[in-house]
Design a protein that fits this description.
It is globular, with a radius of gyration of 17 Å. The protein starts with 7 loop residues before the first helix and ends with a strand. The longest helix is centred in the last third of the chain and has 22 residues. The protein has 164 residues and is α/β, with parallel strands linked by helices. The protein has one domain.
Length: 164
C-alpha cells in the first residue's frame, strides 16, 4: 500500500502529536495533511521532507525497519534543520540510538497503534482518554485513506479490466 512514503505507524504518531501540539478546532484533516506535505530547503542545496511540520517544530517517527542504518543521515538532517531554527522531536523505536540535536523519545510499536499513540501523548504530559484516542484514530485513518487515493496507481490490463 503506497502512502506516499509514510508508514501506518508514522501516520498515527504524527496524528497524535498534531492533535496535542496544534489543538485544532473543527475538522483538522486539511491542516494535518498540509503539515505532512512540507519541504525544508537546507543550506547545502539539499532538502528534507519532515514527517510532520507544525510552524517551526518538526516531528519524526523512526521505525527500526527503515532507520536501523540511518543514524548518521538522521543526525545530519536534524542538525541542519536545527541550525535553521527548527526544533526536532524524534519518536524512535527503542532499539535505535538517540539522534544528536533532537529531543528523542523511545517508543515501542509492537503493542499496536493505540499503545503507540498513548506513548506519544504521555511524552507530552497528556493522558490519552477514550475521546482523544477516537480523535487520533479518526484523523489517522482519514489521512491514510487520503494518501491511498493520492498515491494510488492504476494500470489497465484489458479494455474493461483495471487493477489497483
Amino acid at each position: 500500500m503506497n502512502l506516499g512514503g509514510k508508514s501506518t505507524e508514522e501516520i498515527f504518531v504524527t496524528s497524535a502529536a498534531f492533535l496535542i501540539l496544534s489543538a485544532p478546532e473543527g475538522d483538522p484533516l486539511q491542516h494535518y495533511l498540509a503539515c505532512l506535505d512540507q519541504r525544508i530547503d537546507l543550506p547545502d542545496g539539499r532538502h528534507t521532507k519532515p514527517d510532520l511540520l507544525i510552524e517551526k517544530h518538526i516531528i519524526e517517527y523512526d521505525g527500526a525497519y527503515f532507520h536501523l542504518d540511518k543514524g548518521e543521515e538522521d543526525a545530519r538532517k536534524t542538525l541542519a534543520t536545527a541550525a535553521l531554527g527548527y526544533t526536532v522531536t524524534r519518536y524512535r523505536d527503542g532499539r535505535l540510538l538517540p539522534v544528536e540535536g533532537a529531543t528523542n523519545f523511545a517508543v515501542d510499536a509492537s503493542e499496536g497503534l493505540e499503545s503507540l499513540a498513548m506513548q506519544v501523548t504521555a511524552h507530552h504530559g497528556v493522558t490519552m482518554d477514550r475521546q482523544l484516542w477516537l480523535r487520533i484514530d479518526s484523523l489517522a485513518r482519514r489521512a491514510i485513506l487520503h494518501c491511498k487515493q493520492k498515491y494510488a496507481t492504476t494500470k489497465q490490463t484489458a479494455m474493461t479490466q483495471y487493477t489497483v
